[in-house]
Amino acid sequence: MTKTPRTLKLALRGEALLEHPQYNKGTAFSARERNEFGLVGRLPVKVNTLDHQCERAYQQLKTAEKPIQQNEFLQSVKVQNWVLYYSLLGRHLRELMPIIYTPTEAEAIANYSRSFRRPEGLFLTFCNADSMEADYLEQTRGRTIDLIVCSDAEAILGIGDQGVGGIGISTAKSAVYTLVAGIDPANTLCVVLDVGTNNKSLLDDPLYIGWPHARVRGAEYDAFVDKFVQLVRKHHPHSLLHFEDFGVDNAQRLLELYRDKHAVFNDDVQGTGAVTLATLMSAVGVTKSKLSDQRIIVYGAGTAGLGIAAQIRDAMVVMDGVRKEDASGKFYMIDKFGLLTKGLKQAGKTRQNFPDDFIRTEDDWTEGQTSLLDVVKRVKATVLIGTSTHAGAFTREVVEAMAAHCDRPVILPLSNPSKLVEVHPKDANDWTGGKALIATGSPFEPVKMPNGKKDYVIAECNNALIYPGLGFGCILSKSRSLTDTMLIAGTRALASLSPALKDPDDSLLPDFGDAPDVNFHVAVAVAEQAIEEGSAGVEWGKDEVKERARQARWEPVYQEYVYDVEGLRD
């Protein structure tokens, strides 16, 4: 249901109004508004509806042949007119999400300095640390800030260290929050923490516009990040702070450091873990088993792989009532050296801060017998998760070994982009005779099933199916932290919407085109859990959550403007 447009009092006139993306309507300004705000003569005479504008913009978009060109066009729309930008995206959500986010945004970020036209967001640079608070307040003073998305750009979308270009991932994530969760873009702040870069091609590029310095590490880095976090806590204590694309040595560490002090979220750790957990919950619903019954191999022991294992492990504890150490024992983490064992860690072949919870200690895991295939055969794995970016790692022999001992093996090749997927879903389907329950990190076409069954829809295990709702629920409830139980509540809400629960041969997750409705349900579940457990900062009860959520959602519709020289706003 679309809300009734409000009447806004504005003091902006003429060119200043047309240049303000929050308020600009372009050709949709009414005749009265054109007269009142000094726009007659600045616009063609025809008054368009938003529908007309979206149709025109979409036709213009389609003239761009390459995805990166479409990305640039959409960015130009965004800096001119927020309502048009989000309305256009919402009408073509499935088609345009890969253009404004992964995989196309990675190319835009990699070329950020060379294609730079206009700044967007807040650039906090290490060499200007002394003025950080003044710089922060310059952009936020007098504003309501509900959401802050920040990155230090060390691990961008599979392309690594991108320095100041990381502002692009902050703005892209923020846009998705608005697009599918309805968070007001005026109440968001996108930040890049420019602590230098170790990307030699950037440092050698005279057109690089970030701080041309080696990436700061250690105590200086920690102090800089802490100064930023304390500013957020001081000036916007009820905001959600979203960390994005931090490096493997910092992502989990910073999350654990701050999550009990502020509402903090890391999508690479928690979002990836939550959407994968929802996928697995759907799969165990199909197999009529429990999470704690599974034997899970995670191939790729980086930030995403560890986040997934931790989320599923914690869910086993909460939902199945098993001890944490027993739940941890259900996982087998594999990286380029093979199964992560105590001996491997002692030999310095794993990250030294990798948690011992997921390190195997059995004496009989001897060197040379810990490959992916060895582990699949030995433990009779029921779930195989790929976060390695090792294309083709799930070979036919590995997949057939899964199917040999498991009626419905769960195979989740989640690496992005699609060219880096551990196994093509068609192969996984064919090699298991249509038995596998499959979800991927990138979109794939449905695959043919044996025996004339309908095509199997490959679920897209996309974080955007859940992280905007998790954030919206936290913001709505003004929660002091985003707790594990709130995350699980949102995950359960997503899993409950799985088409596979009605038809075991259907997709494990809802269609991505339904992401706005899905995230609404997630947000409601999160806010209800926050109120129930006492972490919320609101005075209303669970019975009001749905209506409060509906009222809080920002929608891309034009408001009616009335000129007011005092600049009052209803």
From TrEMBL:
Cofactor field: Mn(2+); Mg(2+)
SMART domains found in the cross-reference section: malic, Malic_M
Cofactor binding notes: Divalent metal cations. Prefers magnesium or manganese.
Any one biological process term the GO annotation gives: malate metabolic process
Keywords: Metal-binding, NAD, Oxidoreductase
GO cellular component: cytosol; mitochondrion
Residues noted as binding (S)-malate in the record, renumbered to the chain: 416, 462
UniProt GO molecular function: malate dehydrogenase (decarboxylating) (NAD+) activity; metal ion binding; NAD binding
Binding site for a divalent metal cation: 244-245, 268
Residues annotated as the enzyme's active site: 101, 173
Domain called Malic enzyme NAD-binding: residue spans: 269-531
Domain Malic enzyme N-terminal stretches: 78-259
InterPro entries: Aminoacid_DH-like_N_sf (IPR046346), Malic_enzyme_CS (IPR015884), Malic_N_dom (IPR012301), Malic_N_dom_sf (IPR037062), Malic_NAD-bd (IPR012302), Malic_OxRdtase (IPR001891), NAD(P)-bd_dom_sf (IPR036291)
Keyword Transmembrane helix tagged: no
Family: Belongs to the malic enzymes family.
Protein name: Malic enzyme
Species in which this protein is naturally found: Exidia glandulosa HHB12029
Lineage summary: Eukaryota, Fungi, Dikarya, Basidiomycota, Agaricomycotina
